[in-house]
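Dear colleagues,

As part of the handover before I leave the project, I'm documenting each prediction I ran so the next person doesn't have to rerun anything. This entry is a single chain, and its sequence is reproduced below.
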Amino acid sequence: MNGTRVFVTGGTGFVGANLVRLLLQEGYTVKALVRPNSRLDNLQGLDVELVQGSLTDRNLDQAMAGCQGLFHVAAHYSLWQKDQAALHQDNVLGTRNVLAAAQTAGIERTVYTSSVAAIGVKQGAIRETFAERLRRRIPLGIADETYQSPVEKLIGAYKQSKYWAEQEAVNAAQSGQNIVIVNPSTPIGAWDIKPTPTGDIVLRFLRRQMPFYLHTGLNFIHVQDVAWGHLLAYQKGTTGDRYILGHQNMTLKQLLDQLEQITGLSAPSRSIPAWIPLTVAWIDETLLAKLGKTPSVPIDGVRMAGQLMYYDASKAVQELGLPQTPIVDALKDAVEWFITKGYA
């Protein structure tokens, strides 16, 4: 037992729940901040001290008292345009408050969970199919930690809020606070309680609710590797640096084909032009929402799918020893968890 006491925000979520389990496994004592209305299913039965509160509470430093480390994982995730104010409040102002509290509480080292969303992508919207790109041998843009998209080119309020939140961490580190930044790509695996948009893809596949697919690409990583990336960043990371926690760049079609091999269910064979879901999303968010109906497709989500979100995680692999578990294993774990928990 190493006895190090750490404070975790976002422990009830997907990445946070996997991180808390890893920390306990490695002998850390965990104190977790949970909102009064949080679902606690992901922490049930774990030896974790729970503290009720929010990211913007003024007395967070008191809650952190006695802890040596902080993992600030919590963030508000939404692609709905109506949530712009809440995204700024929780992600930007919340991060500012959490880091200030850590400074006051004497936290020795902080790992701040940013996202590749804050980095952006190295190319614009997809105007051709992947087949056309491959035929013409057009190189795919892959971003690493040295790349930064201009904030105005980041699609949607969520990505922009993660950029500004990361700047809070950068500024605090430049002022002398011991902070390491990690930028997870797209995690897959167990404990995806909400679920995340990627988990929702797995679920819709299992429920046979995916007759078509979009031409898009993402960087995927097993969520357990993301958890290890956090701990390795805490143990080995360079203060002020950021580390992309990712693994394999894949098209959505490639991911669905792997799900077909795992489950025996047929993957969709036909793609759908981006303008169709974009039209549906526009009607959902601009027309139906005003009539009091809950929108089902976010405009920003469809716009993001028009980009290749590919990343290079070699820095984290080489400097931290980030594990690179095969994505097929991550998908197997996700499928098993969703089925066991009665989601599918």
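The first strand starts at residue 5 and ends at 9. The two ends are 38 Å apart (CA to CA).

All the best with the project,
I.
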